[in-house]
Structures are given as structure tokens and as C-alpha cells.
């Protein structure tokens, strides 16, 4: 009798597990897709390089990639500084912040810009694409690049200061991408 009870218990457990597996197969993680969502918060050269390497690597693997540039990360998607048409505070931010990716420094050991030049030299020596080349590759691979509209307004960044082909959006835009992503990173 013990054998029958043990067999019945085991069969019940197997049936329960099969039902649970079927439920999970029918309702996988809601909306998770083959995508990567990045928040680019830092305006440091080394962090921008990392963000673009991850973005281009993921895109080349067939993942959909979105990059959300906010606050100091806007430096990675600017092409120039514009002072006209800005109030005093906005002009101050413009003066203090890099005007484009090529003007950004390192987060560590920047040494008044010498560190950034050394990293760029080492990248060239080792045939690593420059940050500007990585940015262009990201665009070519279809990486979605969204500029935080709130950060742009707070820092007084005009549309004409931004690289062409970028989207403007808010936190809801990023969260919509992140909610469906397998990987979400904050850089």
C-alpha cells in the first residue's frame, strides 16, 4: 500500500509540475524581447565609449538597441556649442559642458585633457574604432538614440546643437523600451 501511495503522490507532483510548466510557457515574462536599453547619464569619454561599444555589439548580434541620453550624457550626442538665444544660466552650462563627443574627458586620470588624448591614441594604435566611428556605426546599425527632452531643456541645449537623426523623448520613452528589454544598463 505504501508503494501505491508513493506512486500516486509522485504522479500528482508530476501533474502539478506539468501544469506549472504549461502556465509558464503560455505566459512568459510579459513582453520581454531581444532588446537592450541603455541610459547614458555620464558625459565622460570612457563611459561614452563603453556605451557605444555595448550598443554596437548588441546591435550586431541582432538585438534591438535603444540609448537614452540624459543630463551629462547629452555631451555624447552634441555637435557644437551655441550661445545665441540662451539666457545667462543656459550660456553658463554651454560654456562649462563639452560641445561634442570629441571634447569630452575621462572620468579618471583626465589630466586636463591629456588622458583623453592618450586613450584616443591607444585606441588608434590597437585598431579600436574611435568614439565618433562607434557613434556612426550605432546609427548605421539602427540603434535608436533618444535625447531626454527634459535634460535638454534644463541644460539649455538647442536642437541645432544635437547630432542629426536623434529622437526627443521623455522618461516614458525610455521606460517603454526598458520594460521590453532583456538587458537594461545605466552608464
UniProtKB/TrEMBL annotation:
It comes from Candidatus Viridilinea mediisalina. PANTHER family: CONSERVED WITHIN P. AEROPHILUM, PEROXIREDOXIN FAMILY PROTEIN. The keyword Membrane applies. The chain crosses the membrane at residues 48-74. InterPro entries: DsrE2-like (IPR032836), DsrEFH-like (IPR027396). Keywords: Membrane, Transmembrane, Transmembrane helix. This is NADH dehydrogenase FAD-containing subunit. The lineage of its organism: Bacteria, Bacillati, Chloroflexota, Chloroflexia, Chloroflexales.
Amino acid at each position: 500500500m505504501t508503494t501505491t501511495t508513493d506512486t500516486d503522490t509522485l504522479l500528482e507532483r508530476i501533474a502539478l509540475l506539468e501544469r506549472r510548466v504549461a502556465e509558464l510557457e503560455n505566459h512568459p515574462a510579459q513582453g520581454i524581447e531581444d532588446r537592450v536599453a541603455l541610459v547614458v547619464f555620464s558625459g565622460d569619454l570612457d563611459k561614452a565609449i563603453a556605451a557605444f561599444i555595448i550598443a554596437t555589439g548588441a546591435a550586431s548580434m541582432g538585438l534591438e538597441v535603444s540609448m537614452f541620453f540624459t543630463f551629462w550624457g547629452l555631451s555624447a550626442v552634441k555637435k557644437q556649442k551655441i550661445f545665441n538665444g540662451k539666457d545667462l544660466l543656459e550660456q553658463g552650462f554651454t560654456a562649462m559642458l563639452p560641445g561634442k563627443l570629441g571634447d569630452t574627458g575621462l572620468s579618471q586620470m583626465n589630466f586636463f585633457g591629456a588622458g583623453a588624448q592618450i586613450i584616443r591614441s591607444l585606441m588608434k594604435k590597437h585598431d579600436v574604432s574611435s568614439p565618433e566611428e562607434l557613434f556612426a556605426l550605432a546609427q548605421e546599425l539602427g540603434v535608436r538614440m533618444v535625447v531626454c527632452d527634459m535634460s535638454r531643456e534644463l541644460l539649455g541645449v538647442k536642437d541645432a546643437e544635437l547630432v542629426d537623426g536623434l529622437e526627443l523623448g521623455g522618461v516614458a520613452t525610455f521606460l517603454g523600451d526598458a520594460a521590453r528589454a532583456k538587458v537594461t544598463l545605466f552608464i
